[in-house]
Amino acid sequence: MIANLVQLAAGEEQNPLVPPGPELLVGTIAFAIVFFFFWKKLLPNINKVLEERRAAIEGGIEEAETMKVEAQSVLEQYKAQLAEARHEAARLRQEAQEQGATLIAEMRAEGQRQREEIVAAGHAQIEADRKAASSALRQDVGKLATDLAGKLVGESLEDHARQSRVIDRFLDDLEEKAEAGR
């Protein structure tokens, strides 16, 4: 074949698409050496790098899956804690409402008790004031009645013991008549 190429090259004008024979032979040998070098040296290194890259990618995918599962677990824990916190908040709110209602009831009872004490103290004060007014009125009425009786009789009726007895008896009779009239 090389001989055919050499004859063609010598006999005819050279075709630009067909290289000369010795060049073709040197090119084929060079290609075989480069191919052998790539096949023995570079191809194993390239395969090794590709294998490492594949392992790294697969490891990354596995790690991502593991992290996804872990994240899902953490999310579930978070949701459970959130639900528990909401439940606790609802329980605390309910307790606060119950305590508030109890406190309001206690305050109402205390207010009622204080009101009753104030009313009772008011009644006692009114009764004391009524008795004091009645006593003062008895004395004033007695003095006026004694003075009037003394002016009518023309003598002084200054005997205090007798005067007090007469006035007390007179006022007691008036009170009995007033109570009987009710």
UniProtKB/TrEMBL annotation:
Q: Which residues form a coiled coil?
A: 61-102
Which taxonomic lineage is given here? Bacteria, Bacillati, Actinomycetota, Actinomycetes, Kitasatosporales
The gene name on file is atpF
**Entry's localization field:** Cell membrane
Organism, scientific name = Streptomyces cahuitamycinicus
Q: Is Phosphoprotein among this UniProt entry's keywords?
A: no
State the similarity comment: Belongs to the ATPase B chain family.
Q: Which domain of life is it from?
A: Bacteria
Gene3D superfamilies from the xrefs?
A: F1F0 ATP synthase subunit B, membrane domain
Q: Which UniProt keywords apply?
A: ATP synthesis, Cell membrane, CF(0), Coiled coil, Hydrogen ion transport, Ion transport, Membrane, Transmembrane, Transmembrane helix, Transport
Q: Name one Pfam family in it.
A: ATP-synt_B
Could you identify this protein by its name?
ATP synthase subunit b
- InterPro entries per the UniProt record, alphabetical: ATP_synth_B-like_membr_sf (IPR028987), ATP_synth_b/b'su_bac/chlpt (IPR002146), ATP_synth_F0_bsu_bac (IPR005864), ATP_synthase_B_chain (IPR050059)
Main location (coarse class): membrane
| Matches recorded under NCBIfam families | ATP_synt_b, PRK05759.1-3
Protein task: F(1)F(0) ATP synthase produces ATP from ADP in the presence of a proton or sodium gradient. F-type ATPases consist of two structural domains, F(1) containing the extramembraneous catalytic core and F(0) containing the membrane proton channel, linked together by a central stalk and a peripheral stalk. During catalysis, ATP synthesis in the catalytic domain of F(1) is coupled via a rotary mechanism of the central stalk subunits to proton translocation. Component of the F(0) channel, it forms part of the peripheral stalk, linking F(1) to F(0).
